[in-house]
Amino acid sequence: MPDRALSTPLHDSFERYLQDKGKGRGGDGGNYRRNAARELERFAEWAAGDRGDDDWTGIVPGDVDREPTFDDLDERVFREYARHLGGDRGLKQNTVQTYYRYISAWCGWCVNEGHLEAHYAQRASAMAPLPEDDGRKPGDQQAWTSEQRHTLTRHVDDQARDAVEAYTTLPADTDPLDKQRARYAALKAARDRALVFALAYTAVRVGELLRDPNDPRRRGVRWEDLSLDDGSMDVYRKKQQWDAASLPDPVISPLRSYRKLMDPPTDRWPVFPTFDQRTLAGLVQEELADRGEHPDAIAERREEYARDLLLALEEDIRPPSITTDGARSILQRLSEAAEIDIDHPKHDYLAPHGGRRGMGEVLVRAFGYTVAARYLDNSEEMVRERYSHIEAGELGDVATEALEEID
C-alpha cells in the first residue's frame, strides 16, 4: 500500500465516506449519515487522546506531534476502542454494538478505498471486548396498548369536537380576530387528532408520514398524496420508494373533518403543517417580500390576522410539515393532558413508533404474521422476530391446556 494512503489523516476520509452513505442529492441527508458523522467524530477525538480515561493519550506515539493517520490503525486500536465504548462511556450493551458498527462500517469502506490493508474492526480480537447483543434495539420496544390507544384517541377526539363546535357556533357579530383565534384553535386540535389517529391505526412509520430534516426526500405527506375515497395514502417508504399505505376507517373521518376546516389553497399543502409561530412568521414575511410587498404593508397585513398560519392559508404561502421531533413533542403534550398511565424505561409518553408497534400486535393476534407483514411493510421473517413474544405466549397457553388435560 502506498505510504501516501497510510499517512492520510483519519479526518480526511470522513466527508467522502458520509457522502457515499448519505441520502438525497449529493449525499447530504439521511439519519444514518448524521449518526455516523457523530460517531466518527467521537472516534477521532478518542484516537487523538481527547476522550477516554485521564491517562489515555491517543493512538499517536507520544514523541510525535500530529493528528492520527491510517498508519496508526490496527486491530489493537479497534479492540481498545471497543473496550472504551463498553466500559468508559457506560452505554447499554446494544448501544455499544450500534456505535461500534458505525466505526466498523467506515473501516470496511476504508479498505475498499485503499486507506487500509485489512478490515481490522471486524477481526475477532478487535471485537472481543464488545458486550453480547441480545437482539433488541434500545428504547424501541414500546407498544401502545389497546387501553392507551383508546384513551389517547378519545382525548384528542373530545378536544377537537369541542374546539370545532366552539368555532362553528360563534355568533355572527363576533369580533373578526376572536373568530380567527377560535378557528386557529380548532385547526390545531383537528390536526392533532388526525395525526394521532394516523399514528395509531395506519402503522405507517413516523418518518414516512412527516418531514425528516436529515432527508430532503421526506418532506411529509401532502393532501395530494391522500385518497380518502379509496382509503389509501402514498408515502416514501423505508425501502427508498413510493408505495401506497392503507387508511383504515377510523382515520378517514378525522382527516375529512380536518381538511374541510383547513380548506387548503392547493393539494400541495402538507397534511400536518407546522404551527410554530417563529417559523411561520419568518416564512410569511419572506414570501410577501419576495412578492414585492413593502415591509410596512407586510406588517399591516399580519396585524389583520390572529396567527400567521391563517394569513399563510389566505395567501397560499405553503408551510413545511412538522418534523418527526415535532410529532414527539406533540405526543408528549397530549399524553400528559390525557393522563395516560405509561410504564416504560425510556419513554414517559406514547412515542410515535409505539403506535406502529401496537398496531402490529393487533394484526398479528387477529390475522397472523403474513397479513401483519403486508400491512406493516415488513418481511414476514422480520415480523415474526419482532413479535415472537406473541407466538411464545400462545404456545404457552397450548402447553398449559395440555398439562391440564394430561395431568
UniProtKB/TrEMBL annotation:
<dbReference type="InterPro" id="IPR025269">
    <property type="entry name" value="SAM-like_dom"/>
</dbReference>
<dbReference type="InterPro" id="IPR010998">
    <property type="entry name" value="Integrase_recombinase_N"/>
</dbReference>
<feature type="compositionally biased region" description="Basic and acidic residues">
    <location>
        <begin position="12"/>
        <end position="26"/>
    </location>
</feature>
<dbReference type="InterPro" id="IPR011010">
    <property type="entry name" value="DNA_brk_join_enz"/>
</dbReference>
<dbReference type="Pfam" id="PF13102">
    <property type="entry name" value="Phage_int_SAM_5"/>
</dbReference>
<dbReference type="GO" id="GO:0003677">
    <property type="term" value="F:DNA binding"/>
</dbReference>
<dbReference type="GO" id="GO:0006310">
    <property type="term" value="P:DNA recombination"/>
</dbReference>
<protein>
    <submittedName>
        <fullName>Site-specific integrase</fullName>
    </submittedName>
</protein>
<dbReference type="InterPro" id="IPR044068">
    <property type="entry name" value="CB"/>
</dbReference>
<dbReference type="InterPro" id="IPR013762">
    <property type="entry name" value="Integrase-like_cat_sf"/>
</dbReference>
<feature type="domain" description="Core-binding (CB)">
    <location>
        <begin position="5"/>
        <end position="111"/>
    </location>
</feature>
<feature type="region of interest" description="Disordered">
    <location>
        <begin position="1"/>
        <end position="33"/>
    </location>
</feature>
<dbReference type="InterPro" id="IPR050090">
    <property type="entry name" value="Tyrosine_recombinase_XerCD"/>
</dbReference>
<keyword id="KW-0229">DNA integration</keyword>
<keyword id="KW-0238">DNA-binding</keyword>
<keyword id="KW-0233">DNA recombination</keyword>
<dbReference type="GO" id="GO:0015074">
    <property type="term" value="P:DNA integration"/>
</dbReference>
